[in-house]
């Protein structure tokens, strides 16, 4: 059973500020690390799928980095906007199974 | 392309009954995964199917079962429902475990 952990559990950000949060996962038998954004009353939406150590991905103001040797990934939000308010989930892939962390809930205050 | 669809969207059952949930993946996707989300819990993996074969199963009792048809549509069944089975059930389809595309979910309430 993979133990994927995310921190912090929640955070509040002022509009325009940047923020980041962490996903840690077991580094052995690593295949891929997924990030999803889950807005209230919607379905989780894919942000990134990362596989290579040192990988960096970017989508608009959101970016992510991956360190497979030490088992962590960071998600960054630059210049937070109210529409960035959501729960951000990471998940580690192993043997056709995605194990999700509990998520980091981001609230952006106008 | 049409997205992932799940039926029904809402369901109310009583303890001891059984329920079947359906998931239609995005056209061309052969992998379907099922997840359970309960209050205070993250997404818990139930099982994954690819070309009608279950490739992995999460830590759920045998009351939870699933199957996939030749057209990649998938169903999950929960027998002898318990109060704790009340949850949001999400399915997701992908091209062999790459980016997962989630359906809207089925919200099950067990009374």
Give short descriptive properties of this protein.
heterodimer; A: 110 residues; mainly beta; 0% helix; B: 111 residues; seven-stranded mixed sheet; four-stranded antiparallel sheet
Blueprint (SSEs and pairs):
The complex is a heterodimer of chains A (110) and B (111).
Chain A (H helix, E strand, L loop, with lengths): L4 E3 L2 E5 L4 E6 L7 E7 L6 E6 L5 E4 L2 E6 L4 E6 L8 E9 L2 E4 L3 E6 L1
Parallel strand pairs in A: 2-11
Antiparallel strand pairs in A: 1-3, 3-8, 4-5, 4-9, 6-7, 7-8, 9-10, 9-11
Chain B lengths: L4 E3 L2 E4 L5 E6 L6 E7 L6 E7 L2 E5 L6 E5 L5 E5 L8 E8 L6 E2 L3 E5 L1
Parallel strand pairs in B: 2-11
Antiparallel strand pairs in B: 1-3, 3-8, 4-5, 4-9, 5-6, 7-8, 9-10, 9-11
Give a structural overview.
The complex is a heterodimer of chains A (110) and B (111). Chain A has 110 residues and is mostly beta strands. Chain A has strands at 5-7, 10-14, 19-24, 32-38, 45-50, 56-59, 62-67, 72-77, 86-94, 97-100, 104-109. In chain A, the strands form two sheets. In chain A, strands 2, 4, 5, 9, 10 and 11 form a six-stranded mixed β-sheet that branches. In chain A, strand 9 (86-94) and strand 10 (97-100) form a beta hairpin. Chain B is built from no helices and eleven strands. Chain B has 111 residues and is mainly beta. Chain B is globular. In chain B, strands 2, 4, 5, 6, 9, 10 and 11 form a seven-stranded mixed β-sheet that branches. Chain B has a four-stranded antiparallel β-sheet with strand order 1-3-8-7, with no helix packed on it. The chains are: A mainly beta (110), B mainly beta (111). Chain A binds chain B through residues 1, 32, 34, 36, 43-46, 49, 89, 91, 93, 95-103, and chain B through 4, 31, 33, 35, 41-45, 48, 50, 55-56, 58-59, 90, 92, 97-105.
């Amino acid at each position: 059973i993979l133990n994927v952990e995310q921190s912090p559990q929640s955070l509040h950000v002022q509009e325009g500020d940047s923020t980041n949060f962490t996903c840690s996962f077991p580094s052995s038998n690593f295949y891929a690390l997924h990030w999803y954004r889950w807005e209230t009353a919607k379905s989780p939406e894919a942000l990134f799928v990362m596989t290579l150590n040192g990988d960096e991905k970017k989508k608009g103001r959101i970016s992510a980095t991956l360190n497979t040797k030490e088992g962590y990934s960071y998600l960054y939000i630059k210049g937070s906007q109210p529409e960035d308010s959501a729960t951000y989930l990471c998940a580690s892939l192993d043997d056709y199974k995605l194990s999700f962390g509990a998520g980091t809930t981001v609230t952006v205050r106008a | 392309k049409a997205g992932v669809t799940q039926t029904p969207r809402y369901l109310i059952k009583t303890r001891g009954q059984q329920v079947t949930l359906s998931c239609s993946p995005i056209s061309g996707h052969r992998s379907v995964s099922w997840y359970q989300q309960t209050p205070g819990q993250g997404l818990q993996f139930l099982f994954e199917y690819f070309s009608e074969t279950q490739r992995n199963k999460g830590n759920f009792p045998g009351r939870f079962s699933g199957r996939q048809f030749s057209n990649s549509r998938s169903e999950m069944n929960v027998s002898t429902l318990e109060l704790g089975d009340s949850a949001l059930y999400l399915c997701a389809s992908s091209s062999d475990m790459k980016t997962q595309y989630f359906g809207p979910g089925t919200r099950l309430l067990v009374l």
